[in-house]
Amino acid sequence: MSLNQYAQSLLNYRIWTNAYGVARTALALGLLLTLVFNNTDTLFRPGLLNDVSITKATITQISLYKLVSLETARWISVAVLLFVISGYFPRYTGILHWWVAFSFNASGVVVDGGDQINAIATLLLIPISLADKRRNHWQIEQEYSSSSFLRINAVCAYFFLRLQMSVLYFHAAVGKFKVTEWLDGTALYYWFSDPSIGMPPWLFDLMYYPLTNAYFITILTWGVMIFEVSLAFALVMNLKMRRRFLWPAIFFHFMIIVSHGLVSFFFGMLGGLIIYLYPLQEPMRFPRWAWPFSAKASEQPRDAEGSVGDGIPASA
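RESULT FIELD:
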């Protein structure tokens, strides 16, 4: 395949549907809940602006929390995230979304894996948003930039984000194989029974007997590792097989909320999973009463000049 043919194959990808909008919304919602339901003293270390560990890295100098007061930055972030969720003008909110996510990840003291995923995912979504010509990311009809450069960059960023999700699951699975408790099938019991990050007492009491059954806990522990390995290799699966993993993966991360209370982590992974496993060329259909843009669907995607575009190859 020549370079021109390869470039044309990239231009045939059409990923600007409301499915990508749902992914952006999930990423924004996770951070929004963190910022709204926690106060500044909880989220940030006192004396942050003078903290040597924060000022040491040059990149953190662009953190919003370094430029204005912590409380002001928190509410600016909330406003930006609400605007991202509204879906309006994704071409311009993509960079702002990353800036807010990066700033919290760089400056917050109570960040978790979901915040790190959020910062990376929103960065890789910037090229996709820059090529998005729609007024609102909830629109099903596709309108994208006529610039081949922007569209190729967007598709490359889409592939890199999917690769990032695959590596994330592979690393999570392989790391467990080096831990004795994961290999002997008891790790989940220790995680669930931990008094600080484990199950709430009422749930642990309810699940006590199955969790203390050697067969059940071993199957459950090894099931987690096998499932994470499978998710890692979803990158190379065909579309039909890949999308079968979406709902089980969402349920898997929802159960982490139930067991450990990691709400922001769930939404970070939800956004990543939609991009990783869901075919973005296929719009998500919502009832007309649920969202007004669902009534504005077009069966064929259109570019900025209004010409009908080719769909993404089903095997991709």
